[in-house]
Amino acid sequence: MNLYPNPTVANARVAVAREYLRNDWTGWSLLKHIGKWAFSRLPGRIVGLEAPRPERLVASDADTVIVAVNANGGIGDYVVIARALRDLAALSPALRFHVFCPSVESGNWVFGSLPCVEGVFDAVFLSRVRRQYDCVLIANQFLYTTTDDEHIDLGRLARLAPAFVQAIAHYTKACKWRWDVFIHHQPGLDGAFAHTAVALGLNRYTFLQSLMGVAPGPLALPLVCDDTIADELSARFERWITINTGFDPTFPTVSRYATKCYPPQHWRHFVRAFKEKCRDVAVVQIGAKTSISIPGVDENLVAATSLPQAAAILQRSIFHVDNEGGLVHVAASLGTRSIVLFGPTSVKYFGYPGNVNLSSDVCGDCWWATDRWMDRCPKGYRQPRCLLELDPDHVAHVAAGEIQRATGGDTVKSEKQRWNVRPGWKADAGRGVSDWTTSQKQESL
C-alpha cells in the first residue's frame, strides 16, 4: 500500500521530521508532533472535541478573502508575524486571516488582538483544510507562499484583493531568488541569513514586510493586558523594573540552561548591584518555566502569570532587562524600553532601535553556527564567553542610568561619576552601535 502517492507530500513530511530531529535529537518533539497529527485525524465525535473544527469556519463571505497562515516559532515570532499580517491587511479591506500555529493559547493572545484575524487553530489541522483557502502563507523567519505547490485562487484574489496579489508577485519576482536557499535549509542557515539581511539594511522587525514589498507599520500591537497582578504590585511598590532569565519553552534543549541566557551568577550579581544603586526601585522577575529564579528580587513571578498578566506588568515597568527573546518583542509592542543582553544571536538583526542592546566583542553572533547552538557553545566553552564577559556591574550601571533617564531623578549618586568599561564592550541604543570603551579608571559608585 502506497501511503504517500504524492511525492511532494512525502518529501514535505520527511523534511518536517528531519527538522524536528535537528532541533531535538532525542526525538521527543517529533513523537509529540506525530501524536498530535494522529489525534487530529480522528473524528471529533470519537475524541470528544467541543471546539469547532477549522473546516467549519473556512466558508467566507463572497466579498472576503480568507488566507491561511502557517505560523511557527515562539511568542516573539508570533509578535513579529502579527505585525506583518496587520500591515498586509492594510492592503485590502477584504483580506482576512486564519492562523494555524503550534501553541493556540499564545497564538490567540497575539493574533486574536488583530481585527484582520478571524480565527486561530492548532497547526496540525492545516493539512486537512488548506485547499479550502484562497491562499496559504508560511510564516516563520520568512513570510511567503510557494506558487508551485500551494493552492491559490488567483482569480478571486485579483478581483477582491489586487494589492495582495501584487505583494505575492513582489516576493516571487524580487525576493524568491535571494532567499530560497535559506528557506530550504531552515533553520541551519538562519545565522547566514541574518548576516545577509543586515548587509541589505534589514532586521527582524522589517524583514517580513520587505518580502512582500509592504511598508512596516508601528511596533505597537493591541495586546490584551490583565491588570490583576500589576495592581497588586502597584499597591506594594511605587515603581519597578522587570527581568527575565529564561528562553522560549517551545525550543527543545537537553539542559535547563541555554547558551543565549545570561549566566545565573551574573543575574545574581546584577540584582545586588542594581538594588545598591536604586534602592527605591523594585525588581520583579517574570518568565516561563525555563527561567532560573534569582535570589534578591522583590517579587518572583516565574511561571506564575498568564501572558496577559505578564504583559500588564511589563507595560507598567520602567524598563525590562532580558536575554534576547520573546518578552523583548512583547515589551516593544507595549511601548516598554528594554535592556537586552546579546550573545549568540545577532544584535544588528534582532536589536530594536529604541532599546539598549548590550553585547561584547568576545565571540557572539553564532546563531545556528551548529545544530545544537542553544545547548552547547559552538566554540566548546563550558559557558559561552560572549555573555560571560558582559560584566553585571556594567549592566547594573546602565540600568541605573536608564532609571535616571526615565524619571529625571537622582538615583545615581552623581552625574559626573564615570564608568570604566573594559575594551570591547558595546552598547547599541539606536540604529548604530557605539563603543563604550574608555581609559578612565573605575570610580566607585
Description:
With 445 residues, this protein is an alpha/beta fold. The protein folds into 3 domains: 1-42; 52-211, Rossmann fold; 228-435, 3-Layer(aba) Sandwich (Rossmann fold). 39% of the residues lie in helices and 12% in strands. The chain is built from 17 helices and 13 strands. It has an 8-stranded mixed beta sheet with strand order 8-7-6-9-10-11-12-13, sandwiched between helices. A 5-stranded mixed beta sheet has the order 3-2-1-4-5. Strand 6, helix 12 (264-277) and strand 7 (282-285) form a beta-alpha-beta unit. Helix 4 (75-89) runs parallel beside helix 5 and helix 7 packs across helix 8 (162-184). The chain starts with 6 loop residues before the first helix and ends in a 10-residue tail after the last strand. 40% of the residues are buried.
